[in-house]
Amino acid sequence: MKVICKIFTILVAGSFVAYPFQVRASEPAFLSVAVGYYDLVQDHNQATEFRVEYRSDKGVSMFKPFFGMMGTTDSALYAYGGFLLDLFYGRRFVVTPSLAAGYYEKGDGKELGHELEFRSSVEISYRFDDRSRVGLSFYHLSNASISSKNPGTEVLSIVYSMPLNTED
Q1: Residue 53: what are its φ and ψ, rounded to 5°?
Q2: Cβ-based neighbours of 103, under 8 Å, separated by 6 or more
Q3: What is the rounded distance in angstroms from the CA atom of residue 108 to the CA atom of residue 111?
């Protein structure tokens, strides 16, 4: 799994350097669902992650708000909100970095040190003609050292995003 993370990081970084990205203002809102591998890098509290997000089509400048909820098979829960940016690589590929903050409840899962947790994420998706997307998402979740305990965790997920308000 660590090899997959390194390859994913290299592809994202290489894409930013190699090709000029575009921002499109006319994208619809999305309902996104994901399933992934929780605690990917540290491998102490592995679990399956399930996630649902609403991604708005309205925003401030290029940034669009989103909110969502994540749960794991270890009963950990995370409800969050933040901002994202869709960067288009040609017509079909979309890189979506995002930042969010929210409330974390560990359940029987990993103790992250605080209820307030921050998520930094990058997603690479393929965009279909109907504007739906399928992709890979990688994110880091931690409390940004607002607590003395800050182990953090990483999640790699498969994501499907369904457009909600297409004009076509």
Answers
A1: -140, 150
A2: 78, 79, 80, 115, 116, 117
A3: 9
Q: CA angle, corner 52, sides to 165 and 107, nearest 5?
A: 160
What's residue 69's pLDDT? 98
Cβ neighbours around 64 below 10 Å, total: 22
Q: How far apart are the first and last CA of the chain?
A: 39
Task: Tell me what the mean pLDDT of segment 45-72 comes to.
Answer: 93
- The sign of the CA dihedral 110, 115, 120, 122 is positive
Is residue 143 classed as helix, strand or coil in its secondary structure? coil
Indicate if the pLDDT at residue 6 is higher than 80: no
pLDDT of residue 3: 54
Q: Rounded to whole angstroms, how far apart are CA atoms 141 and 94?
A: 22
In whole angstroms, what is the distance from residue 18 CA to residue 21 CA? 9
The DSSP line for 23-90 is --TTPPPEEEEEEEEESTTT-SS-EEEEEEEEE-S--BTTBEEEEEEEEETT--EEEEEEEE--EEET
- For 86, residues 6+ apart whose C-beta sits below 8 A from its C-beta are 23, 24, 27, 64, 94, 95, 96
In this structure, what are the phi and psi dihedrals at residue 109, rounded to the nearest 5 degrees?
A: -100, -155
Look up the pTM and report it. Answer: 0.83
